[in-house]
Specification:
Elements: H1 2-16, H2 20-31, H3 38-63, H4 68-81, H5 84-94, H6 101-118, H7 121-134, H8 138-150, H9 157-164, H10 171-196
Helix pairs in contact: 1-2, 2-3, 3-4, 4-5, 4-6, 5-6, 6-7, 7-9, 9-10
Length: about 200
């Protein structure tokens, strides 16, 4: 048991110091000694491996600073290890720069998905409008509508208010957006009634 505790302490220390390879090695060794609380050990191992990967990508970025593919990979990978609000902030910073259209589409798409998870109404509407205008393939647009269909928080009412007032959507899509807005407004009314009882 003492050996297990030593390994975990060393792995924790390595992680805190940013030596993610050593941390992963320590958690891996600890996992082979005991199944007690192994889910915590494996979670720490997984996070160490992800942080090590991100560290490696950052080193590659120093070597190839003009690689848009690397930048996009880093931004998408960050979704695994950082809070959604941090990822949205990083994606928003990225969108302030000049970039190829293909890359810009990917960044908007990533931020749109993140905004749907984080209940970020402003970016949700802004990115949907950009993506709808620039993604012309029906399958891509279908995916955007499927994400809209999953939204179930009243925080998105302003987003749908913005969207239903735009001219770029076909009649059926506009009807769907109106119905979604009405659904969220009904939810808001029901919540308010519950809060008053």
């Amino acid at each position: 048991m003492a050996e297990l505790e030593d390994l975990l302490l060393q792995a924790d220390k390595a992680f805190e110091e940013g030596d993610y390879a050593a941390a992963a090695e320590g958690y891996r060794a600890a996992a082979t000694l005991s199944s007690h609380d192994i889910h915590f050990t494996l979670d720490n191992l997984n996070l160490s491996e992800e942080m090590e990967h991100l560290q490696f990508v950052n080193r590659l970025m120093e070597k190839f600073p003009d690689s848009w593919e690397l930048r996009l990979h880093r931004l998408n990978f960050m979704k695994k290890v950082y809070p959604t609000s941090t990822v949205i902030s990083k994606l928003s910073e990225e969108l302030k720069q000049e970039m190829p259209t293909r890359y810009e589409l990917s960044v908007h798409s990533s931020r749109f998905s993140a905004a749907a998870k984080a209940r970020e109404s402003k970016y949700f509407a802004e990115d949907l409008l950009y993506l709808w205008e620039n993604m012309l393939h029906p399958r891509q647009r279908k995916h955007l509508l499927e994400i809209c269909a999953t939204v179930d928080a009243v925080e998105f009412i302003p987003a749908f208010e913005t969207l239903v007032n735009q001219d770029g959507f076909p009649v059926e899509v506009k009807a769907f957006l109106r119905a979604k807005k009405a659904e969220l407004q009904q939810l808001q009314t029901a919540i308010r009634q519950l809060e008053q009882t």
